[in-house]
DNA sequence: TACTGGCTAGTTTTT
DNA sequence: CTAGCCAGTA
């Protein structure tokens, strides 16, 4: 963590210099609502900030205001964000207001980094040591696999990933092992889910480790079980601020509530900022309800809506607002702008296939570039990452510079994780997961059987693996070859541990990689990737230069996993809609607006109407990223899982306001079948919304369905799916005991029904949970 | 212990 | 289609 360093005492200078003025500088240029949000600092406050309405500005100015009016010291403000990027941006902006003295805002950070900080202070109260390791998903899976093996659970049938997902969901909901309802834990591995969770937690304690979920969950437990600790934080935090509140999950909500309990709810100095229309992480446990319920949680809360948009043209705002208006259960905001000119209409282009889509987008990008637009000001936002490849390929042939945001992150790359495992083991010799990772990397001739033996000893003696190695090399149990290898490995680690006292971390890692043979391994590797891997390791060492202690660096990498694209070159950005939240571009391309792709079929199948609404919010996020220009496209044909499928334009196209949209249909020119009677026809109707279900898109959707082979249930209809989900299993088209047929699994019998998910005992494939839409009556 | 073919599964991912 | 994982073989 960058702010781990001792804090400089805040300087009174810049603060007092602001006092005595009637109208501080930082209030200049704020609109009335923004100003209100900045100045209302006592009592609960909910700021509903639509896209591009100056949310971050309000948040940072508010902090600046609290500081300059001396209502609190930097260390007395708790300010929470979801991403490191947001935290960093806030720090930078506050520093600009108040001067460098704020560099030391120690409690400005992500939920996770702040929780980790608190936990390290009171680690012993939650059965950890303050040096505990933070596990990432990779370690988590490895650990779960071990537990599954110990329980003799078939990994094929009960994948570790699935259990990791369940664990995550439980922790997101703030549930300790004892709190998980039996109906929940009973499902996995025939009722062993609860026990596994319990064992998993126990294992974490012996490893002196916590996973991401634990950072919050254990913090909550700490507060609940130790009121005196909680009281300490009540006294400490005079003001609380939360960014992107719509993305908070139950655990984060509980965490905040506990910390806000120092005062009666109606007097809590808590300010949450968010936009219910940009809640796109429901599938990850985010509860939009948290923001919708704020006024109930904190009675008398003031609500301020920021609706004046400073980013986009009127046409873009109109399109976004019209689409999002189709959602129910909103707090209801409408964006508006002062800019008189409507700007370019949103364009919608239908193309023959995804290849042509990439070609078209490529051409347009080159055209805008010729007109003087920087590639940096253009972005392609896709629903799913598989859509990216086609654009990348096209840009390579065109020679257009591009940058992909997302994908495997730097710290998740294999070679980086290997290097980190070496470092972790030096910092924490009890880190068994790290040990297992590198014991045979590079290859040392220490295979499964040796590792098994070591683990056996470790378990019996109740010591970490590295310690078990020390014991084993003194016995005759190992084969001579392995014994020699292990002996020198231990000696190496002792040497590294000793060196770590004097060498700065970046030199230590270079030394270790060289000495361990890792670099030799890469040098011997003739594959294309090995060069890149070496580069990455160099980059790792470079990034470590600013850290003085190994512990400080490790904390940083486990929590601050951001992929800083330090790349300053001019390039088009390709990324998912999810990662685009919070960003803006002059020109935004939104390809792949086909029903099934976007909105994604799976979202609708799994969560029905709620899923569709979240997809719609994604559309809203996508459109509002554009400042000047938004260009939507849909392919008539797309290859999914290797086979070509014809697709109809997204239902969201039908929800766009016709007078802000311009339609072209390139697809028909290529002999593809267009839809309706000419591309623009449907937008010429007096009121395209008089019946949404009569629009060509829908008619085609319906026609498509009745033609589907097998004539399965209408899964494309959000309403129908939603109904079956909402009624909690009563409305399934299937009955318990019914014989059904699944294209892949064959015949089987329905043994459980949950909404549109059926558990079926297949004759050949065993028991599986499948979506109703994938089966038919047998 | 290390490699290679066959098989399976296949959204979104702030920490 | 294709990438990642496991099981069987050298």
TrEMBL record:
A Gene Ontology biological process in which this protein takes part is: recombinational repair
Q: Where is the UvrD-like helicase ATP-binding domain?
A: 28-313
Q: What Pfam families does the record point to?
A: UvrD-helicase, UvrD_C
SUPFAM superfamilies listed in its UniProt record = P-loop containing nucleoside triphosphate hydrolases (SSF52540)
| Gene3D superfamilies tied to this protein | 1.10.10.160, P-loop containing nucleotide triphosphate hydrolases, PCRA, domain 4
- InterPro entries in alphabetical order: DExx_box_DNA_helicase_dom_sf, DNA_helicase_UvrD-like_C, DNA_helicase_UvrD/REP, P-loop_NTPase, UvrD-like_ATP-bd
Q: Which GO terms describe its cellular component?
A: cytosol; DNA helicase complex
Q: Return the CDD domains for the record.
A: DEXQc_UvrD, SF1_C_UvrD
Q: Which reaction does it catalyse?
A: Couples ATP hydrolysis with the unwinding of duplex DNA by translocating in the 3'-5' direction; ATP + H2O = ADP + phosphate + H(+)
In alphabetical order, the GO MF annotations are: 3'-5' DNA helicase activity; ATP binding; DNA binding; hydrolase activity
Q: Which domain of life is it from?
A: Bacteria
Annotated spans, Disordered: 1-21
Query: Which residues bind ATP per the record?
Result: 49-56
The EC code for this enzyme is: 5.6.2.4
In this protein, which residues make up the domain named UvrD-like helicase C-terminal?
Answer: 314-582
Q: Which UniProt keywords apply?
A: ATP-binding, DNA-binding, Helicase, Hydrolase, Isomerase, Nucleotide-binding
- Family per similarity comment: Belongs to the helicase family. UvrD subfamily.
What does the UniProt function comment say about this protein? Has both ATPase and helicase activities. Unwinds DNA duplexes with 3' to 5' polarity with respect to the bound strand and initiates unwinding most effectively when a single-stranded region is present. Involved in the post-incision events of nucleotide excision repair and methyl-directed mismatch repair.
Spell out the protein name for this chain.
Answer: DNA 3'-5' helicase
Organism of origin: Devosia ureilytica
């Amino acid at each position: 963590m960058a702010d781990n360093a001792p804090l400089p005492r805040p300087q009174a200078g810049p603060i007092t210099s602001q006092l005595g003025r009637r109208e501080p500088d930082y209030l200049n240029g704020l609109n009335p609502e923004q100003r209100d949000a900045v100045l209302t600092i006592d009592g609960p406050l909910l700021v509903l900030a639509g896209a591009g309405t100056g949310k971050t500005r309000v948040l940072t100015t508010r902090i600046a205001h609290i500081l300059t009016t001396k209502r609190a010291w930097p260390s007395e403000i708790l300010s929470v964000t979801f991403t490191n990027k947001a935290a960093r941006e806030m720090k930078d902006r506050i520093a600009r207001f108040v001067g460098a003295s704020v560099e030391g805002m120690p409690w400005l950070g992500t939920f996770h980094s702040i929780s980790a900080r608190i936990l390290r202070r009171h680690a012993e109260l939650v059965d950890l040591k303050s040096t505990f390791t933070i596990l990432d998903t990779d370690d988590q899976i490895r650990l779960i696999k071990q537990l599954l093996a110990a329980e003799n659970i078939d990994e094929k049938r009960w994948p570790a990933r699935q259990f990791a997902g369940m664990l995550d969901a439980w922790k997101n909901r703030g549930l300790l092992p004892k709190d998980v309802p039996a109906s929940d834990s009973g499902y996995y591995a025939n009722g062993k889910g609860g026990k596994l969770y319990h064992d998993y937690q126990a294992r974490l304690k012996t490893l002196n480790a916590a996973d991401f979920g634990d950072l919050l969950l254990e913090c909550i437990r700490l507060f609940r079980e130790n009121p005196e600790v909680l009281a300490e934080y009540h006294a400490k935090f005079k003001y609380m601020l939360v960014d992107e509140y719509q993305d908070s999950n139950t655990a984060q909500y509980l965490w905040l509530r506990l910390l806000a309990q120092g005062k009666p709810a109606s007097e809590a100095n808590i300010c949450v900022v968010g936009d219910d229309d940009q809640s796109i992480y429901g599938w990850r446990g985010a509860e939009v309800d948290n923001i919708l319920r704020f006024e109930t949680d904190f009675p008398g809360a003031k609500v301020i809506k920021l609706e004046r948009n400073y980013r986009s043209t009127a046409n873009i705002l109109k399109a976004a607002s019209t689409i999002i208006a189709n959602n129910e259960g909103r707090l209801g905001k409408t964006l508006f702008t002062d800019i008189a000119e409507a700007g370019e209409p949103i364009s919608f282009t239908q193309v023959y296939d995804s290849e042509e889509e990439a070609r078209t987008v490529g051409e347009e990008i080159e055209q805008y570039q010729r007109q003087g637009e920087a590639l940096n000001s253009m972005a392609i936002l896709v629903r799913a990452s598989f859509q990216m490849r086609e654009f990348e390929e096209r840009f390579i042939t065109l020679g257009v510079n591009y940058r992909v945001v997302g994908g495997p992150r730097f710290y998740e790359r294999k070679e980086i994780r290997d290097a980190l495992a070496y470092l972790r083991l030096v910092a924490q010799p009890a880190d068994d997961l790290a040990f297992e990772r590198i014991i045979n990397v590079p290859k040392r001739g220490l295979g499964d059987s040796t590792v098994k033996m070591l683990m056996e000893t470790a378990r019996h003696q109740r010591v970490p693996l590295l310690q078990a190695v020390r014991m084993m090399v003194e016995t005759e149990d190992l084969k001579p070859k392995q014994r020699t290898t292990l002996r020198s490995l231990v000696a190496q680690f002792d040497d590294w541990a000793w060196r770590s006292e004097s060498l700065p971390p970046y030199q230590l890692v270079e030394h270790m990689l060289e000495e361990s043979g890792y670099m030799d391994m890469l040098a011997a590797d003739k594959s294309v990737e090995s060069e890149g891997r070496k580069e990455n390791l160099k980059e790792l060492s470079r990034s470590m230069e600013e850290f003085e202690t190994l512990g400080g660096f490790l904390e940083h990498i486990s929590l601050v996993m951001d992929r800083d694209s330090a790349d300053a070159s001019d390039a088009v950005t390709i990324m998912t809609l999810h990662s685009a939240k919070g960003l803006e571009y002059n020109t935004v391309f939104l390809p792949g607006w086909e029903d099934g792709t976007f909105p994604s079929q799976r979202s609708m199948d799994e969560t029905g109407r709620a899923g569709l609404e979240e997809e719609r919010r994604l559309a809203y996020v996508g459109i509002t990223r554009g400042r000047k220009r938004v260009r939507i496209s849909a392919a008539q044909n797309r290859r999914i899982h290797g086979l070509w499928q014809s697709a109809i334009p997204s239902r969201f196209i039908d929800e766009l306001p016709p007078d802000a949209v311009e339609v072209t249909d390139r697809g028909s020119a290529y002999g593809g079948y267009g839809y309706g009677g000419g591309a623009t026809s449907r937008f010429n109707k007096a009121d395209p919304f008089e019946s949404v279900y009569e629009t060509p898109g829908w008619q085609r959707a319906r026609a498509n369905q009745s033609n589907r082979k097998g004539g399965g249930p209408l899964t494309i209809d959000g309403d129908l799916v939603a109904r079956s989900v909402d009624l909690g299993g009563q409305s399934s088209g299937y009955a318990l005991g019914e014989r059904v047929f699944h294209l892949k699994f064959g015949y089987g019998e329905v043994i459980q029904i949950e909404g549109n998910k059926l558990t079926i005992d297949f004759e050949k494939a065993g028991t599986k949970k499948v979506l109703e839409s994938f089966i038919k009556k047998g």
